[in-house]
């Protein structure tokens, strides 16, 4: 059992498994300087096998396959521990220049014996993952302050290699405006305003201020839908808009559709006799059902 750069690994744990992965035998490698890292298994039946190595001193692992084809055959199956390296990076905002601190950073390696790990970006946006197995990896980040995300990919191939990656949060902008009555001028205070990006999980909610204004910041680029509802009543407003690029500030005025009075008479099937005590439900498009009693 060898180190990635050559040289045997002393006192490593070696497991022999059958073709189905079931352990069949166990041994440790030699610590004798003349046979450093050597191991052996005797009386192994003909068949295909797996070898797994683990160095408890460093946590390194390795794996290989071997096959015994005939009686009395001696098979040499040298194999190495997987190379380990370091992934360093810097996280920037959507403008590509402003470092982002305190973001959750996750690495998902795809190499042999890889395990995901999580850290946070430093005040200068930097992050480090040591001891990453050779192979591909994906970096995924989420900024808890803005909920914006970003990702990057890379790979390690050499023992002791350091790979540097740059991760940038998705571009975003601001949506701001005013909620107004149907007359187009009277502001609506404390209206419930919601924003969604159709087809995604992006969803925000706020209330309009005393002067009817509202604002949503750090909204990812894309098409957006806005809805507003007056605080006491059924009047609603809606609009669509779009953030086209990093730093965009778009204005969207939400004008209520207005309300009126609906009257009528419910009669029997003869078209003449009125019917009393029946609940009549009127449903307006885009609003929750309004139930009127008569």
Topology:
Elements (H helix, E strand, L loop, with lengths): L12 E6 L4 E6 L18 E9 L4 E9 L15 E9 L11 E6 L7 E4 L5 E8 L1 E8 L6 E8 L5 E7 L3 E9 L11 E5 L6 E5 L5 E8 L1 E8 L6 E8 L5 E3 L2 E2 L23 E4 L7 E4 L1
Parallel strand pairs: 5-11, 12-18, 12-19
Antiparallel strand pairs: 1-2, 1-3, 3-4, 5-8, 6-7, 6-9, 9-10, 12-15, 13-14, 13-16, 16-17, 20-21
Short description:
Helix content is 0%, strand content 46%.
Would you mind describing this structure in some detail?
The chain has 294 residues and is mainly β. It contains no helices and 21 strands. The protein has strands spanning 13-18, 23-28, 47-55, 60-68, 84-92, 104-109, 117-120, 126-133, 135-142, 149-156, 162-168, 172-180, 192-196, 203-207, 213-220, 222-229, 236-243, 249-251, 254-255, 279-282, 290-293. The strands form 6 sheets. Strands 2-1-3-4 form a 4-stranded antiparallel beta sheet, with no helix packed on it. It is elongated and about 105 Å long. 24% of the residues are buried.
């Amino acid at each position: 059992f060898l180190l990635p750069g050559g040289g045997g690994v002393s006192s490593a744990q070696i497991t022999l498994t059958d073709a189905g992965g079931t352990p069949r035998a166990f041994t440790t490698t030699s610590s004798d300087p003349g046979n450093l890292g050597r191991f052996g298994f005797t009386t192994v039946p003909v068949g295909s096998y797996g070898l797994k190595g683990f160095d408890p001193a460093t946590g390194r692992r390795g794996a290989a396959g071997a096959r015994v084809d005939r009686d009395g055959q001696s098979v040499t199956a040298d194999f190495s521990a997987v190379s380990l390296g370091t992934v360093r990076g810097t996280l920037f905002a959507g403008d590509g220049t402003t470092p982002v601190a305190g973001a959750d950073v996750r690495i998902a390696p795809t190499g042999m014996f890889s395990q995901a790990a999580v850290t946070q970006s430093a005040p200068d946006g930097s992050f480090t993952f040591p001891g990453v197995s050779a192979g591909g990896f994906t970096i995924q980040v989420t900024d808890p302050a803005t909920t914006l995300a970003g990702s990057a990919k890379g790979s390690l191939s050499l023992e002791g290699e350091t790979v540097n990656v740059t991760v940038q949060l998705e571009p975003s902008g601001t949506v701001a405006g005013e909620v107004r009555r149907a007359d187009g001028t009277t502001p609506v205070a404390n209206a419930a305003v919601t924003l969604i990006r159709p087809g995604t999980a992006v969803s925000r909610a706020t209330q309009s201020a005393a002067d009817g204004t509202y604002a949503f910041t750090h909204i990812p680029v894309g098409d957006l839908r806005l809805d507003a509802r007056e605080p006491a009543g059924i009047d609603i407003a809606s609009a669509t808009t779009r953030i086209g690029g990093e730093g965009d500030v778009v204005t969207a005025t939400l004008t209520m559709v207005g309300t009126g009075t609906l009257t009528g008479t419910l009669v029997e099937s003869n078209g003449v006799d009125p019917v009393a005590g029946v609940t009549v439900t009127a449903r307006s498009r885009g609003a929750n059902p309004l139930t009127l009693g008569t």
